[in-house]
Design brief:
The chain is an alpha+beta fold. The protein has 5 domains: 4-91, 3-Layer(aba) Sandwich (GIY-YIG endonuclease), CATH 3.40.1440.10; 102-201, no CATH class; 253-374, Nucleotidyltransferase, domain 5 (2-Layer Sandwich), CATH 3.30.420.10; 382-560, 2-Layer Sandwich (Nucleotidyltransferase, domain 5), CATH 3.30.420.340; 566-625, DNA polymerase, domain 1, CATH 1.10.150. Helix content is 45%, strand content 18%.
């Protein structure tokens, strides 16, 4: 038994990381401390104004553990790793795990290339970015290769020089063909230098050169070349015009600002490289209730820069955060060069931070509007349906459908909606075992009986297990059962539930003569529902989804049943030999007309099997003629 008060006395007076566990031994919080003894004990003091969120977390702590480190910096790194590994419920978490694209110039090669990369490695290449748009990166690389005619192949040059013919890019004047020895390393490096200048934002020399080439080609009446140079000129000019925000110091910096309310937080980051704004991105932070703004910013900085491969020279934050010196030290160590964290208060830099904050607020407000609309379509629609039926609380709904063609391959489908959204991981398919022929009622009875008996068995087993995660979707029973039909289907469901002694509301989704949803059947009466309401739209979606899922399963079974061939009936012919025959002959008719020698000439077909194939078809012909 873990005695919290006794363990608190044993805490050391040194830096480290502490880990809080609940009664299920799940990690619910990870934190770092300069002094573990003081920090951890502070959680268990009473009446110190920590706020309801922290009080709730503390009430769930069943035990804690800690890891001692040599410094606060080591504790910071370890804290980040543990949060990333376990995603504790009460830690503020960065919701974004995407990787950002870079432009990679392989300057370590004799004939460098310009490549797309999502990782920044410690190699001899130069990296530009990160960029927020992969499409823009690809367009830029394509433009650079057209401008400077750099190679795109992966050949090991100059070792493989002259091994093959020049590729198509050479013939369309998009590569200087170093693979053919047509250009020296020195001449090629001149083009690479121009590409690097371009990526650094120096566009004027390129524009001047393209304008001159366009004019010269036009004077020589080489209009195709003139048009090509004109198009390249316009493309470069377009990229140059996008650099609206510049900074005279030409440094790499990230500008970070936050917008939050009582439930949500959005962090906006402007990426400035070589003094130019190259992109922006927003990030959602979860578990932010009652968390101070500065703490959210701190958590973002720690989690984001623990994962991104590029760290700028400077971070400009909206407001001060704790442990700035430690964070700077950590970032400097990761980057391998000095990193500064600044909180601008006046001037141009403060305006940039303010701009980032406005963008964050815009994203947050737009997102809340989207969530409001989404909740109307989902949770609001469920509440509307529950109100029509007089039910207090409906969260999980299950719908069922039967599919067959004249009784062939009877199948059933079970789909699940939770809070108005499909939960596809809980969908289930049933292949009918006890019913032959087109009897939808009997099929539905079998499906429902199997579903709920299975669920009851799982619930009994669950009493002896600790974690529900070990079981499937059958363990949870619905708050409302939706049947694809009216009185008949509803009565079948009620009969099954009565036999199993279960009390679950059952509602029928009634269709009109045109097979369109028209209302609900509940408690022996049909309830009309406004066709323009979100509740009606949700019922229609559920009904269509149940039907689609059943049809899809039935179609897959039909396809499997139909993937047969008369060749499968011949002794000695399995899947491999059947494929070999169909590769050699265009049709079954050609197989029938082939002699033994021709059949034996097919790979995989020995003479004995060839004779068997020949005999099979010719004996069949003899029987028909008789």
């Amino acid at each position: 038994m873990f005695d919290i008060q006794e363990e608190l006395k044993k805490l050391p007076n040194c830096p480290g990381v502490y880990i809080m566990h609940d009664e299920m031994d799940q990690i619910i919080y990870v934190g770092k401390a300069v002094n573990l003894h003081s920090r951890v004990r502070s959680y268990f003091r009473k009446n110190i104004g920590r706020g309801p969120q922290i009080d709730k977390m503390v009430s769930l702590i069943s035990r804690f553990e800690y890891i001692v480190t040599d410094s606060e910096l080591e504790a910071l790194v370890l804290e980040n790793n543990l949060i990333k590994e376990h995603s504790p419920k009460y830690n503020t978490l960065l919701k974004d795990d995407k990787t950002y694209p870079y432009i990679k110039v392989t300057v370590g090669e004799s004939y460098p290339r310009v490549l797309f990369s999502r990782q920044m490695k410690k190699d001899r290449s130069r990296y530009f970015g990160p960029y927020s748009s992969a499409a823009a990166v690809k367009d830029t690389i394509d433009l650079i290769n057209k401008l400077y005619q750099l190679r795109t192949c992966s050949k090991n040059l100059p070792r493989e020089c002259g091994n093959d013919r020049a590729c198509l890019n050479y013939h369309i004047k998009q590569c200087l063909a170093p693979c053919q020895g047509d250009i020296s390393e020195e001449e090629y490096q001149v083009q690479v230098k121009k590409a690097l200048d371009f990526l650094n934002g120096s566009y004027q020399d390129t524009l001047k050169e393209l304008g001159q080439k366009m004019q010269e080609a036009s004077e020589r009446l080489e209009f195709e070349d003139a048009i090509r140079y004109r198009d390249l000129y316009n493309s470069v000019k377009q990229i140059a015009s996008k650099q609206k925000i510049t900074d005279s110091d030409g440094e790499d910096k990230d500008i970070i600002a936050l917008a939050c309310d009582d439930r949500d937080a959005v962090v906006q980051v402007f990426f400035v490289r070589d003094g130019k704004l190259i992109g922006r991105e927003h990030f959602y932070m979860t578990h932010v209730a009652e968390t101070p703004r500065a703490q959210i910013l701190l958590d973002f900085v720690k989690q984001f820069y623990a994962g991104t491969p590029f760290i700028p020279r400077e971070l400009m934050l909206q407001e001060a955060i704790e442990d700035i010196e430690v964070i700077e030290q950590w970032l400097t160590k990761r980057k391998g060069a000095r990193v500064y964290i600044k909180i601008p208060k006046i001037g141009y830099k403060e305006k940039l931070v303010e701009l980032a904050a406005k963008n964050a607020m815009l994203v947050l407000s737009q997102d809340k509007e989207r969530i409001r609309r989404e909740e109307g379509r989902t949770i609001g629609a469920v509440k509307e349906i529950a109100g029509l039926l007089g039910l207090e609380d409906v969260s999980r709904m299950e719908a069922y459908d039967i599919s067959n063609i004249s009784g062939f391959a009877n199948v059933g489908s079970m789909i699940v909606y939770e809070k108005g959204k499909p939960k596809r991981s809980d969908y289930r398919k049933f292949r009918i075992k006890t019913v032959s022929g087109p009897d939808d009622y009997a099929c539905m009875k079998e499906v429902l009986t199997r579903r709920f008996r299975h669920g009851m068995e799982e619930q009994k087993e669950l009493e002896y297990k600790e974690l529900e995660a070990e079981f499937g979707s059958f363990t949870k029973f619905p708050d409302l059962l939706l049947m694809d039909g009216g009185k008949g289907q509803v009565n079948i469901a009620l009969q099954v539930l009565k036999e199993l002694e279960l009390d679950i509301p059952v509602c029928g989704m009634v269709k009109d003569d045109n097979h369109n949803t028209r209302g609900l059947y509940y408690n022996n009466e049909e309830i009309q529902i406004d066709r323009g309401s979100e509740g009606f739209k949700l019922i229609t979606r559920v009904q269509d989804e149940a039907h689609r899922f059943a049809i899809e399963y039935h179609r897959s079974l039909r396809s499997k049943a139909q993937v047969k061939s008369v060749l499968d009936e011949i002794p000695g012919v399995g899947p491999a030999r059947r494929k070999a025959l169909m590769r050699r002959f265009k049709s079954i008719e050609e197989v029938k007309n082939a002699d033994v020698e021709t059949l034996a000439g097919v790979d995989e077909i020995p003479v004995s099997v060839a004779q068997g194939i020949y005999d099979f078809f010719h004996e069949e012909k003899e029987q028909v003629s008789q």
